[in-house]
Specification:
heterodimer; A: globular; B: alpha+beta; 6 strands; about 60% helix
Chain lengths: ~200, ~375
């Protein structure tokens, strides 16, 4: 089944969500495979952005889809698949984080984030500017990931979903907050990046 | 809060670039995911015509049984009731005694009269035996205390029983207080009255303790009456499951083989509590249920684990014509618990799971792995 594209990314719209869910519920496993095909690349990147561990991201995305399949049969009919899948994925990441505590969750040894603290109390970014040494793309990528890692996970989620082309309503649904709260999270997240860029 | 479009674009671009995989990164798990999903779907379809068993939780059973025992407040209430009955009986005795013997008055003296009624018959008319009578009085008061305490304990189980137990306590014969024992009666009265007071206090305490003891006893009895499998497990037994007598060896080997076959990655196995070193530490307890689908059993335990706030991961280890094997790994804080569910579809592989003769086609085995 061809999928509509929205906001420059492959994103299923509401009516396609409903049709796919109905087909899955009717026992059509292939319909679920369409969902996996569509969302696996995004979710694995999203989870990787929160965990910095490739294999763990792959494991968690697998868990996410299996859990989603089980829950799909009792989920509401007007389910917004993208937000729902991101929500499940975020919960998987949080569960993993709780499980691994007090061991540092993120790979970076300099990582000192405490996502249990309110957003306002998170440490200010203090990273060297990777652009001062052009060509070190790997370092720059790591710096961006570190910047994300220092944000509370809901801010990081909002930024990553925004970067993946989701609109504020979808991010709000995934985070189970208001659209206004999403905009605030995006604003604060970008502010942290500005501090990083301005260094 | 003004959004800077340039900053927004730059952040989006940088994040997209940072999350973009390099060469060889992010292997798709689509095949594995779909394999698991197909197994889920197959189980769902096959179980659609099978009525889901009523999940009778062992925990619930225990709770229900516990409901028949008396909580602390009920024990205290029963104790108070018992004390009231004792007091009422004493008052009746007092009235009767006042009618028959003008030498006794007051509840303490009445209590002394009660005891001295017996004492007088033992010591006869010798005043020199007054001390002896007093001693005996004290002894009897002590006995009465024990009796009343016991009655209080009994009251925790059944107030009416306590009442009937307390009522016969004053087995005196009214009007038989001998004049020779009158001196001893006065001396003993104080002791007996004090003892009577102690009786009341002790009764309440004993009843409360008895209530707690009764609860514990009821729980123990309930556990003893049921299966011992879940006594130390947080999860309930599946409805209709019967306990398997197991040795760890065969199940451990079976799980090791399953994990080695299915999960090649060390981190995968670690995440799921399926490393060889971890499996080697597991103690297994098992049960089996006939004609239950793996999916129903798994769904039941996932639900129960969710109720207890466990984080659960499910790993399908085997799904073919012989066996369907799924490993649930439950985590809560530092607590780890594995639940291995095996549906036997063919007798060929049945003996390799828990040892010869333990399982057969149509059985679904549930093994709890703890370390």
């Amino acid at each position: 089944m061809p999928l509509n594209r929205g906001k420059g990314n492959l994103i299923l719209n509401g009516s396609e969500d409903a049709r796919l869910i109905a087909r899955v519920r009717a026992g059509e496993v292939a319909a679920f495979e369409l969902i996996v095909t569509e969302y696996e690349p995004k979710l694995v990147r999203f989870i990787y952005g929160l965990t910095h561990e490739r294999e763990l991201a792959e494991d968690l995305v697998q868990d996410t889809f299996v859990s989603a399949y089980r829950a799909l049969f009792s989920a509401p009919d007007d389910l917004k698949l993208s937000a729902w899948l991101y929500k499940i994925a975020l919960n998987k990441v949080r569960s993993e984080k709780r499980r691994k505590r007090p061991v540092a969750f993120f790979g970076s040894p300099s990582f000192e984030r405490d996502s249990t603290r309110p957003e306002d109390e998170q440490p200010v970014l203090n990273l060297p500017d990777p652009r001062s040494e052009p060509g070190e793309q790997v370092v720059q990528r790591q710096q961006i990931l570190n910047t994300l890692a220092q944000l509370p996970d809901d801010q990081a989620t909002a930024l990553m979903m925004d970067a993946q082309g989701y609109d504020d309503e979808e991010i709000a649904a995934a985070l189970e907050v208001s659209v206004g709260a999403v905009r605030q999270k995006l604003f604060r997240g970008r502010k942290a990046f500005r501090a990083f860029y301005d260094k | 809060m003004v959004d800077d479009p340039v900053l927004r674009g730059r952040v989006q671009q940088d994040i997209r670039a940072a999350l973009e995989p390099g060469e060889g990164e992010f292997r798709s798990r689509r095949a594995s995911i779909m394999e698991q999903v197909r197994a889920e779907a197959a189980g769902r379809n096959s179980s659609a015509s099978t009525p889901t068993p009523a999940p009778i939780s062992f925990t619930e059973q225990r709770s229900a049984r516990r409901g028949f025992s008396f909580p602390g407040w009920a024990g205290a209430l029963a104790a108070g009731f018992a004390v009231l009955i004792v007091a009422a009986v004493l008052l009746v005795v007092l009235n009767v005694n006042q009618t028959n013997s003008p030498t006794t008055s007051g509840s303490g003296q009445q209590a002394a009269a009660i005891n001295n009624a017996t004492a007088s018959s033992a010591v006869g008319n010798f005043a020199s035996t007054a001390d002896k009578a007093a001693t005996e009085n004290a002894s009897r008061a002590s006995t009465a205390e024990k009796t009343t305490a016991a009655a209080g304990a009994a009251a925790a189980l059944a107030p009416t029983q306590a009442a009937s137990g307390a009522a016969p306590a004053p087995t005196f014969r009214p009007g038989t207080v001998a004049p020779a024992a009158a001196a001893a009666t006065t001396a003993a009265a104080t002791t007996t009255a004090a003892a009577a007071t102690t009786v009341a206090a002790t009764t309440a305490a004993a009843a409360t303790t008895a209530a707690a003891a009764t609860t514990a006893a009821a729980t123990t009895a309930a556990a003893a009456g049921g299966t011992s499998l879940s006594q130390t497990l947080p999860l309930p037994l599946y409805a209709g499951a019967i306990t398997l007598t197991l040795e760890n060896g065969p199940v451990r080997t079976f799980l090791e083989n399953q994990a080695a076959t299915r999960l090649a990655s060390g981190s995968n196995r670690q995440e799921r509590g399926l490393q060889d070193t971890t499996i080697a530490r597991y103690n297994f307890r098992g049960s089996k249920v006939s004609n239950a689908k793996l999916d129903d059993v798994v769904a039941f335990y996932e639900t129960e684990a969710g109720k207890l706030n466990y984080n659960t991961s499910a790993t399908l280890l085997q799904n073919d014509g012989q066996l369907r094997v799924l490993w649930l790994y439950l985590i809560k804080g530092n607590e780890r618990l594995g639940v291995l569910v095996v549906e036997v579809l063919d007798n060929t592989a049945a003996n390799n799971i828990a040892g010869p003769g333990k399982l057969t086609k149509g059985d679904t085995a549930i093994f709890f792995a703890t370390s």
